Amino acid sequence: MNKKYCKNESFLKDTHNRFRDIGRIFEIAWDFFKGFNRLRRIGPCVTVFGSARFKEGDEYYELARKVRKKLGEAGYAVMTGGGPGVMEAANRGAKDAGAMSIGCNIILPQEQSLNPFTDINISFDYFFIRKVMLVKYSNAFILMPGGFGTLDEMFETLTLIQTETIKDFPVIAIGSEYWKELRPFMEKTMIKHGTIDPDDLDLIHITDDLDEVIAIIDHC
Prior knowledge:
Layout: H1 3-13, H2 18-39, E1 45-49, H3 59-73, E2 77-80, H4 86-96, E3 101-106, E4 120-124, H5 127-136, E5 140-143, H6 148-162, E6 171-174, H7 176-179, H8 182-191, E7 204-207, H9 210-219
Parallel strand pairs: 1-2, 1-5, 2-3, 3-4, 5-6, 6-7
């Protein structure tokens, strides 16, 4: 198993002595420093999330490429998790448009490997640090069809917005056929049981109109 992945597993699983914990603090600080140092001057940027499993030629791969090309033409740098699938398509679309293309990568036992379409790429040892960078240096999130990781990023970001930890941060889901059960679930289950407020439905936009995507991001 990859050494970087072992760090994540060890961090959450193992019990260490005081000296090992102190050493881990320095490892975490170094991971943060790498991100801060490489990303602090990237300018307006939008992050795209989505599955690593879609291949070139798949409708969502090609849609992600169009989305990122549109964002690049609008003047936004493009950031992804740096891997294959939708992430590769988004970085590739940014390159097609001549926009800055950024990958914040993490090594996993399967699926994740850095795609070749990035101008800036950083490999992080820890998941949570990578997630901080993807929010901190982004003006908006675009969610393409994806799995648990995409849903994790969606709901963590919506929580940050709901609690006003971040403001004026649009979250946009593209691929309405894929996301069609999301709003009914929120309305019929979450609102019904009082776990979210009706106004929270407005925290996420679902659209397939790429011009509307740009308008939403520009407005914020």
